[in-house]
Amino acid sequence: DKAVDYYERALATARDVGDRLCELTVLGNLGGVFGKWGRHHDALEHYARALQIARDIGDREGEAEIENSAGGIHRERGDCRQAIDHHRRSLAIAREIGDRRTEASCLNGLGEALRVCARWADSAEAYREALRLAMDIGDRFEQARALDGQAYERDAAGDHSGAQRLWNEALELY
Fold first, then answer.
1. Is residue 76 over pLDDT 90?
2. Segment 108-159, tens digit of pLDDT
3. pTM, rounded to two decimals
4. pLDDT tens digits, residue range 92-121?
5. What is the DSSP string of the chain?
6. CA–CA separation, 89 vs 78, rounded Å?
7. Is the four-CA dihedral 16, 12, 71, 44 of positive or negative sign?
């Protein structure tokens, strides 16, 4: 609760001084806190407010990141359509602005949403693309995340040794 108190104070200050970018950041952080606590409704409410500010001020990178985060919350809620839609919008923005780091994150988020929604072939393709991109830009975290997603798919398909090999590769990158 202390984190929320601090963020709420920071949000009030950002509003008082008219700092919309700071307001966007704090709302996104609050969404993240609520998401970690499983308070999905509150997380999505804060992400929606942050998304509106990102659009108002033309912060395309912020818009992509918030869309990606909202997609993760919808995935956790089991709302496949909304999760996939958010991740696809995020991915389109990341590609439009040439933000390859966010693109890799969005591809992994999309892969996770597609996997949870049992769209195995589409999920596998998103993970493969995320892995290639993450390797190209040297993003070890997103590489590990893509390998982790591929491992879950292998495990679900009954290839437990293949899954274990991928998890070991991911662990070395984390």
1. yes
2. 999 999 999 999 999 999 999 999 999 999 999 999 999 999 999 999 999 9
3. 0.91
4. 999 999 999 999 999 999 999 999 999 999
5. -HHHHHHHHHHHHHHHHT-HHHHHHHHHHHHHHHHHTT-HHHHHHHHHHHHHHHHHHT-HHHHHHHHHHHHHHHHHHT-HHHHHHHHHHHHHHHHHHT-HHHHHHHHHHHHHHHHHTT-HHHHHHHHHHHHHHHHHHT-HHHHHHHHHHHHHHHHHTT-HHHHHHHHHHHHHH-
6. 18
7. negative
